[in-house]
Every structure is written in structure tokens, then in C-alpha cells.
Amino acid sequence: MRLILQLMLLVTLRLPLLSASQTMPPEADKQLALSIYKQIIEIKSGFTTGATTPVAEAMADRLRTAGFPASDIYLGGAIPKKFNLVVRYHGSGAAKPILLLAHTDVVEAKPEDWSMDPFTFVEKDGYFYGRGTADDKAQAAVWIANLIRYKREGFKPDRDIIVALTADEEGGGPYNGVEWLLKNHKDLIDAEYCLNEGGWGEMAHGKKISNDIQVSEKYVLNFRLEVHNKGGHSSMPVPDNAIYHLAGALDRMSRFAFPLKINDVTRVYFERMSKIQTGPIAAELAGVAQGSPDAMQRVAAASTAWNATLRTTCVATQLEGGHALNALPQLAAANVNCRVLPEDSVDFVHNSLKKVVADDQVDVKLLSQFVQSPPSPLRPDVLKAINRVTDSLWPSVPSVPMMVMGATDGRYLRAQNIPTYGVQGFFMDTDDMRMHGRDERMSVQAFYEGQTFLYELVKILAKPTA
């Protein structure tokens, strides 16, 4: 209960921004951010087929041109194609550094699936299109552009500002940049706290609803459903078919849902959203905050995002099977990707899937498990600053703490006692979120407003004694 009251107090506190602030950055800084954005979108840094090193090297060149000494710029990574960039802008040292994080790898995109080349930066009808425009190259571009602006303006922070652009957030694995830096060069990114992706602005029907702050996140499990069979000639089919076993298991899984739950963070999220939404749904959201099972059912049915906030989810993401057009399959397999509530255990999820599959011919193997991490502490200075800048740019839009439905590199940092807050100021349509999907895009207005939001926010946080 103390956590809930603390959250409610902090997210409702309003402080005026002392200096006048415009929604859009100055034209020169807009053009700088745009040129960086375009450059890194057009570098193919897909998780499996691309490389992050060209992005890191390109941004290092820009920083050196802007006057950052080579001694303050680090390039390196687990393998030559998976480099990370870390740059430090020195402050007075009166406070510990702040870390600004973004990842430069992107989910794979097949040109034949898109209505345009996913690795050509396109501005059309008020949007920027391209793989990574929303996840996460917009924030990467803004961090670099704003850092260059701070230097040009002679900004003198009380703490060092560290920007880290890192590899392989999308798939984790052995080359993840944040995990590698923590193991090999923690001194480069050690900070009092971090700002990262994971929180965004929610917008519906052209109206800004809330500027969300990610303070906790789900964790990720991948399972492989696998069926082996002796196979045979396709002219003599038998009921015992590997593909049929797998199809039956996946069909049963598609009709299964994990229990609905709330925790300290999601309780406050739904309580705050009940005051923002209008109509009958507002009362339902209030019911969720109070723990009503019936309200949870109705809210989960009303929104895929709310459903994912209220329960662990598992979904089939990849299929394989068969070895010849004229042969009975000897193997059928599927990857099942689970986004797990912090309070649900690995064993609980694994055993639940085995029960749902209900077929001893289908093996359910745990493939990978991402790091679990505790929620970030509710720092008054961070939340007050976010409220302050949000109020300045978008009066009447509240900032709301949330548990992100996916997972971010913040989990590695939290596990190493570096609190991490997902906040961007990029407003996105809740009914048309295209991260990881076809024709990924970012609103032109949202990009520049986010640039201003993050510029102002970091200036406040970088001078805590002001």
C-alpha cells in the first residue's frame, strides 16, 4: 500500500517549468536530428542479418566532428560486427552520472512484406517510415543530436551525461551490448540511474492520453514445441502425423489464457487510466484497480495492450516441419514466445504449457530465459522532472507509471543496481502500434516533440542542484 500511495502522490504532483519551452526544437537542431535519424535507419542493423558496428562508427564520427575528444568515445563489442558506442559528456562531478540508453539493432524486415523498402527512410503523409523508426532508432538519434546541442550551447551539467547505443537488444543472446558492457566495461556505463525506451506517449483518435513511464517490465521465455516421427511415404498416410500433433497442440494453446492479475505498478496504472478515459470503460478500469475479476475480464477483452498488461501471454512465432513434398513429416516444431508477469515463475509457465499441450508426443523445451529484474525505485526527482516537462509541453496530459508488456535492456541494468526508467515523449496511436511489424513508422510531429521533451528532461536531471 505504501508503494501505491507513493506512486499516486508522485504522478499527480505538478511543478511549472521555469523557462519557456517550445514543442518543436530550433530548426538547426531539427535538421541535425533528422539527418542522424535518416542515416541510422538506412544502415541495415537487423538482429540476425545486419550489423550495429556501422551505426556506432557513424555516430562516433559525428561526435568527433562536433568536438568530442576521442578519449571520451568508446567503440567495442562482443564481436566485430556487434559494436556498441559509449560517449561521455563531462559535468562538474557534483552528482553521479546519468545514462541515456538506446539500442541500434532492429527486428528483421523483409522488403516483400512491406509496401516500401524497410531500409529506406521515407517521409510520407506526416510520418517517417522505416525499420527502427519507432523501435529504437528515434531515441538513439535524439540522444546523439541533443548531446551535440548541449556541447554547442556550452551546457554545464552537475553530473556526467553518458550516452550508450548498444547491440542486440531485440534477441538478447551472447552479443547483447548492455550485458557485455556490464561484464567487461561497467565503469563506462555505471550511473546513478538510466533513461531508456519502454515508456511512450499513448494517443487515441488524435488525442494525447498519457505520457507513460516504464518502471517495471515482463520477462521473456522461449519454448520449442517439437514432435518427432518415423515418417514414411506420403502415398500411405497414417493418423500419427507429426504436423497434426503439433497443430493440435497449437490450437489448444490458442484457446488458453493465463490468469488475470494486477501488481503494485499495474494497479496504479489502471487507477490513473480510469481518470483519463471516459464512458463506461472508465468504471471498468477503476474496477481493475480495485481487483475485480469481472472488470479484469472485460478490460482484457477491450484491448490487446490491457490484456497483455494483466496476464502472462504465450504465442507461436515460428514454424518448421517436413523434409520433402512427398514424404510424411519426421519433424514438426514451433517456437512459442512468452512475455511473463514478474510474479509468475518459469516453472509455472512451463508446467502450464505442458498441461495445455496435453500430448505426450509433443515435447515442450525451455530454450531461453531472459534476466528477471525488480522494479525501479520510485525516485521523486525523476518522476517530478518528467511531470514538469510533460506539463510544459502538453498541459493536462498526465504522466503514468507502467509495466511494459515486452522486455527491454533495462532488466540487465536493474539487476546491477542501476535503476532504469523507460520514457521517450514519442506519442503513438494505441490502435496502430507498428513496432516489429509491417510499415513501421513514427509521426513527424511525435519525433520532434520527443526530441524537445528529452532535451528538456535531461537538462533538468543533469543539474539536480539547480
Question: What can you see in these coordinates?
Answer:
The chain is α/β, with parallel strands linked by helices and 466 residues long. It folds into 2 domains: 304 residues, Zn peptidases (Aminopeptidase), CATH 3.40.630.10; 151 residues, Alpha-Beta Plaits (2-Layer Sandwich), CATH 3.30.70.360. Helix content is 37%, strand content 22%. The protein contains 15 helices and 19 strands. A 6-stranded mixed sheet has the order 1-2-6-3-7-17, sandwiched between helices. Strands 16-9-8-18 form a 4-stranded mixed sheet, sandwiched between helices. A 4-stranded antiparallel sheet has the order 12-14-10-15. A hairpin with a 2-residue loop joins strand 4 and strand 5. Helix 4 packs across helix 15, helix 9 packs across helix 10 and helix 13 packs across helix 15. It is globular, with a radius of gyration of 23 Å. About 2% of the residues have low confidence.
**How much helix is in the residues?**
25-40%
Main β-sheet description: 6 strands, mixed
Number of helices: 15
Q: What is the H level of CATH, i.e. the homologous superfamily of the largest domain?
A: Zn peptidases
Shape: globular
CATH architecture annotation of the largest domain: 3-Layer(aba) Sandwich
Largest beta sheet: strand ordering: 1-2-6-3-7-17
Determine the structural class based on helices, strands and strand pairing.
alpha/beta
CATH fold-level label of the largest domain: Aminopeptidase
CATH class of the largest domain: Alpha Beta
**Proportion of residues in extended strands:** 15-25%
Number of strands: 19
Total domains? 2
